[in-house]
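To: structure subgroup
Subject: Chain for Friday's discussion

All,

I'm putting the inputs and outputs inline so they're searchable in the archive.
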Amino acid sequence: MTHTHDSEQSPGAGVDRLGQLVKLAGRRPVPDAAQMLHARAAARLEWTRVVERRSWRMSFWLTAAAIAVAALGTIAWLAQRHSSIPAAHPEIATLEAVTGPLIVTAGGVSRSVTVAGVQLRAGDRIETGADTRTALRMLGGVSVRLDHRTSVILASESQLMLQHGAAYVDADSAASGAALHIATSVGEVRHTGTQFEVRLDGEVLQVRVREGSVAVEASGERWTSRAGELLVLARGHAPERRSIPTSGPLWSWVSDVAPPFTLEGATVPAFLRWVTREQGWTLEFSDASLRGRVDRIVLHGSIAGLTAEEALAAVLPTCGLTSRRESDRLIISAGQ
């Protein structure tokens, strides 16, 4: 008798045997309608919870991602904005006197200025009108005065660009900064410790020297001009030299906008030095012993609003002194 191994039976034999077992188990009880409804409700509730958890997780991560993207965008914007804002230029000058409204332009923005004390930065442009003059003090102590209808750019502490009009420079021994270099479309003016005026009218450059000397450079050439001399440069022409006075009406506009002198607490010699420097005079004493006596006199009060000549007439009598002029010499004597 031949026996066949189970592994050699046909695939359908296992299915038939399972079916026979199901039939032998008989009919299983069916849940009633209430149980079916309860089961469906429980299943639906669980399904809702799962979906809500998934939605909350999805929403949380989407929100977190959005916040992160926004934060990164904000940081990038701030960094770009910070890098695009130029660093503030350094303050290099202060307005000391203003006779009327002038225009100061910084960063493409212009504003009207009518009072002294305004701080000026490198790159600022200053423009005076037909009735306005101004005086400014550079960081190193050099005094610069601008005549009517003048436009300059403060390139740096040691360089001024004159676009048109006139600028007067007073760099006395008290100025500790570098010599002021004035650039124009015709030529450049350099100096050390002196008083001079640079005037630009179209293509004509005029340099008047009141004290000391200056060097003028143009078209690869260099000229030196000394006190009491006017140097005129015009394109296409040879330079001209003329003799000029170092005091008088030629320089009167400079005195009109002179920075104020602080009289309170100053000595008589300091006051007299200010007067003679502003007027282009030399100082002398009629008696050698008088110089020693005035050194100890301390002044009080104010000369605000007075010119140098007016201040001289007002102050000297209070000190028992008088003065007289002989050409460019101011001679001080004891009062009668």
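Points worth raising on Friday:
Residues 260-334 form a domain with the Phage tail protein beta-alpha-beta fold fold (CATH 3.55.50.30).
The chain has three domains: 31-85, 91-251, 260-334.

D.
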